[in-house]
Amino acid sequence: MKYISTRGNTKQIGFIDSVMMGLANDGGLLVPEKIPQISEEKLQSLSKLTYQELAFEIISYYVDGEIPEKDLKELIQKSYATFRHQEVTPVKKVKDYMYVLELFHGPTFAFKDVALQFLGNLYSYIAKKTGETINILGATSGDTGASAIEGVRGKEGIRICILHPHGKVSKVQELQMTTVNDETVLNLAIKGTFDDGQRIIKEIFADLEFKNKYHLRAINSINFARILAQTVYYFYAYFQVAGETGAKTVNFSVPTGNFGDIFAGFLAKKMGLPVGKLIVATNENNILERFIKEGIYEPGEFHSTYSPSMDIQVASNFERYLYYLLGEDSKAVSDLMNQFKSEGKIIVNEEQLRQVNEDFAAYGVAGEKCLQTIKKYYDENDYLLDPHTSCGVAAFEHCNEADEVCVTLSTAHPAKFNESIALCGIEQTYPEQIKELFDKPQYLEVVEANNDEISQKLKEHFSSVSQSI
Ligand SMILES: *Cc1c(COP(=O)(O)O)cnc(C)c1O
Question: Best label site of 340, 382, 426, 430, fewest CB within 10 Å?
């Protein structure tokens, strides 16, 4: 399996090199040269596997022998042994036709753990095998940071720096990231939004001299390995729900920010999984909803919402979808991305918009609706949704037909977002692991959203302690 850039200007590379490259060197995103096709027969044989066995099968298509089977199995076992639920990502029936895929049973109580536990172990494995230095740089809207730190802390030869928007993450998210007292971890709280952080790291990664000198590696969902790990649970959920209901196709409603998680669903569908509708659920930061409805991709005004992990205007992974929408024509992708840079928007033609509407449905959930939905399911179904999952459920209600079976991805545990839960008049008890964070000291530096200042901090952090492995 070879990986190529959506913009067509990198040479073909293998799986491990693609993990290490993160953002493609030409500024595009890496995608597999060909998407593996899974036959109906093969699907049948995958349907009874445990989560870990299934992960091994799906991931193997993409690793394509670059990691010996035994090692890959071990990596997967280790990554999901940290989850509190035996099934890793269990599916819960909330009512007829409506299921929730609980992705929050990992160490930091958000779905990001599913991919980042795997990626952390993968980096550590590569570091040991090749002696490569791994300095991780990432921007977070809240959950990726904690999850990435948890995925790599204490692992030999890995250092990490995470940028988060100062004061714009939930209390628990902030505590999870900043209470880690470890000299290999640097938390920079930037005076700005997530989009500022994401833009700055993209620019730093695009400076190839700096990237190579400081051995920078990506943990954002620009890294294809994250998307890959996330396709697994679409398969897993489909098998559970199709098995239980007899449904031929299953819809998925996905709370979306950076278009990563929903892209993983798109990939699963392209591999042959009988996915029906893919419903893009957003909050008031609804660039993706507007794109799907109108064919115009243009950042709007930034809103701070009850679902802060989705407070994103520019969705990194959107370019991966654009690549398939444009018939895998990397020249056309480059042109559109250049246009986006110069004019601030992308407009697709009518035929393309028709295709977009075949691929996705979309619904942007307003704040009040998000809280009402939390209350409604708490009262009527005795199920407490976190505000992101609530957006997913509200979009399910809006976009799903009565006779279609739908799985909403539950991307976080409600305890991470008590600010929003409390507004619903609901009192929740925190899990022990979250309760104990409140007594710990925090380690972070507040900085301007400025490339030079941040580059300077990175230089200091990534050269301060020797990297011997
Ligand atoms: C990151 C995140 C999302 C958005 O996921 P994307 O892959 O960026 O679309 C949704 N909900 C929660 C809780 C998250 O942490």
Answer: 382
